[in-house]
Amino acid sequence: AIEMVKDTTISGHIEINAAGQTLSGPLTLYQKEPDKLRVDLTMPEYDLSISQSFDGQKGRFTNPQTGMIEEMPDFMVKDFARQATGTQALLEPKKAGVVYALKPKAAIEGKDYIILEQTYPDGYKFTFYLDPETYLPYKTVNRTIDMMGGEVEAESFSTDYRKVGGLMVAHAIRVLHNGVEAQRITIASVTHNAGLEDGLFVLK
Prior knowledge:
Strand order of the largest sheet: 6-5-4-3-2-1-13-12-11-10-9-8-7
Order of helices and strands: EEEEEEHHHEEEEEEE
Largest sheet: 13 strands, antiparallel
Strand content: over 45%
Mean pLDDT: 92
């Protein structure tokens, strides 16, 4: 089922807590194998639309201050490149340069979760907490950059899994930055193999 996925389109709603403000609006994510990613976000109350994309080599984004398309800073390019790796990190980790290590189990609310550490070629790490009954990721932990440009520890909690095209997909995601809720994402629809064109991932 994973091998059959050539591209994915995810649509939903996001709430962002930043600098004492709560922003919300529709969110659409496009991912195309093996290395392309685009995120479109709209905040109607602020008449703000932001796009971020990685075409496999370069990253571009909408500067919210100017509304202009600019080259992503290096840290954003690296982050999007990791996210865009898609199914290759699962099916062909050696080809992607990804290494997995099994760690001691950890208890969350009385349940012992399987801990799997994922390391990218540049040394960047994701830690997955897998449900021992379903083997689906319940929680991930990694270091990231928040909207204010500071480095934080991000914890993502994925729930409400539903089967889409033979795959189990989380439809509710809650993200904490340094223990404080930063985002809530609710997924409305997931579409596989829509035939996304490469040009979609080049912002102009």
